[in-house]
C-alpha cells in the first residue's frame, strides 16, 4: 500500500518499521496509531504540532501500514521497543510519545524500558488493562473473525468508534485501512493482538513516573464508563486528563479542535522540565 512517498524504514527484531518524520530542530513527538490503524491517524494533529515548532514522527505499528506484517511478538511492549528504536535511529530523543488504544501501553513501556528516550506520554483512548468483554461481544468476535468477511467486520466495528462526528475524509481512510488489512498477514496480526493480555502493562501503571496526559472521549464504546476509566488511570499515573464530551475512541481525529490545544498546553508544560526541549508550544 503506497501511503506516502516520504516513508522511511528501520530494521529491528527481524522486521521493518515504517515511519515519517517532519524533521526540524524542534522537540520530538513520536505518535503510534491504534490496533489495525495507520499512521495517518495523526493527520489532524501533525499540522498543529508542526506549526507550533515540534518535530513530528509518525510510525506504523507492527502488522499494519507499511510496517512488516509478520512478527514473533505483537505486544504493546514490543511496539514500545520499536518506538525507541526509531528515536535512537534518528537521534531524536528524548521525545514525547503519543499512543492510541493499545499503543498507549506502548508509550508507557517505552518510558519504562528507555526512560532516557521519553520525557512525556499522551495516552489517547488508552486500553492498558484487560477489559472483560460481555457475552455479546465475545460471540460477535468469534463469529466476526471466523470467515472471509473478517476485514469487513473489523471496519464496521472501526466505524462505530466515531459516534458523534466522522472526519471529512472518513470514507477515504476506511478504504485505505480495508486495503491494508487485505494484504497477507495483516488480519492475522490484528487477531494475534486482540488475543494478547494487557496484564503486563497494567502491572507497570503504578511504577510509571513519566509526565502523562490522558485524553478520553465520553462516548468511547470500548469502555463501560470511559470517564471513570480515565479517572482511574489518572490516579495510578498521576496524570492530567482531558475528557472530550461526545467523542469516541479517536478524540484526536473526531474533535481535533478540542484536543490539539490541550496537547500543546501539556507539551508546553514539559518545556520547563529539562534542557532537551528546545521550543515551547504556541499558546
From TrEMBL:
It comes from Devosia psychrophila. It holds the Pfam family Abhydrolase_1. Residues 27-252 form the AB hydrolase-1 domain. Gene3D superfamilies: alpha/beta hydrolase. GO terms for molecular function: catalytic activity. PANTHER family: ALPHA/BETA-HYDROLASES SUPERFAMILY PROTEIN (PTHR46438), LIPASE-RELATED (PTHR46438:SF11). InterPro entries: AB_hydrolase_1 (IPR000073), AB_hydrolase_fold (IPR029058), Epox_hydrolase-like (IPR000639). This is Pimeloyl-ACP methyl ester carboxylesterase. Signal peptide: none annotated.
Amino acid at each position: 500500500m503506497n501511503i506516502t512517498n516520504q516513508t522511511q524504514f528501520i530494521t529491528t527484531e527481524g522486521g521493518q518499521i515504517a515511519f515519517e518524520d517532519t524533521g526540524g530542530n524542534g522537540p520530538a513527538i513520536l505518535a503510534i496509531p491504534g490496533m489495525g490503524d495507520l499512521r495517518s491517524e495523526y493527520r489532524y494533529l501533525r499540522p498543529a504540532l508542526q506549526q507550533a515548532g515540534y518535530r513530528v514522527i509518525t510510525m506504523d505499528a507492527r502488522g499494519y501500514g507499511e510496517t512488516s506484517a509478520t512478527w514473533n511478538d505483537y505486544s504493546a511492549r514490543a511496539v514500545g521497543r520499536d518506538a525507541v528504536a526509531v528515536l535512537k535511529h534518528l537521534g531524536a530523543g528524548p521525545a514525547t510519545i503519543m499512543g492510541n488504544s493499545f499503543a498507549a501501553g506502548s508509550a508507557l513501556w517505552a518510558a519504562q524500558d528507555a526512560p532516557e528516550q521519553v520525557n512525556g506520554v499522551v495516552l489517547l483512548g488508552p486500553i492498558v488493562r484487560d477489559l472483560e468483554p460481555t457475552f455479546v461481544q465475545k460471540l460477535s468476535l468469534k463469529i466476526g473473525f471466523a470467515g472471509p468477511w473478517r476485514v469487513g467486520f473489523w471496519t464496521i466495528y472501526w466505524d462505530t468508534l466515531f459516534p458523534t462526528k466522522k472526519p471529512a475524509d472518513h470514507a477515504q481512510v476506511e478504504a485505505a485501512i480495508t486495503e491494508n488489512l487485505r494484504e497477507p498477514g495483516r488480519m492475522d496480526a490484528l487477531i494475534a493482538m486482540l488475543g494478547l493480555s494487557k496484564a503486563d502493562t497494567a502491572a507497570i501503571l503504578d511504577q510509571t513516573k513519566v509526565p502523562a496526559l490522558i485524553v478520553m472521549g465520553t462516548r468511547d464504546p470500548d469502555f463501560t464508563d470511559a470517564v471513570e476509566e480515565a479517572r482511574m488511570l489518572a490516579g495510578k499515573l498521576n496524570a492530567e486528563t482531558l475528557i472530550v464530551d461526545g467523542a469516541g475512541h479517536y478524540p484526536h481525529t473526531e474533535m481535533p479542535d478540542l484536543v490539539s490545544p490541550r496537547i500543546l498546553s501539556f507539551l508546553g508544560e514539559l518545556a520547563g522540565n529539562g534542557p532537551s526541549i528546545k521550543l515551547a508550544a504556541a499558546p
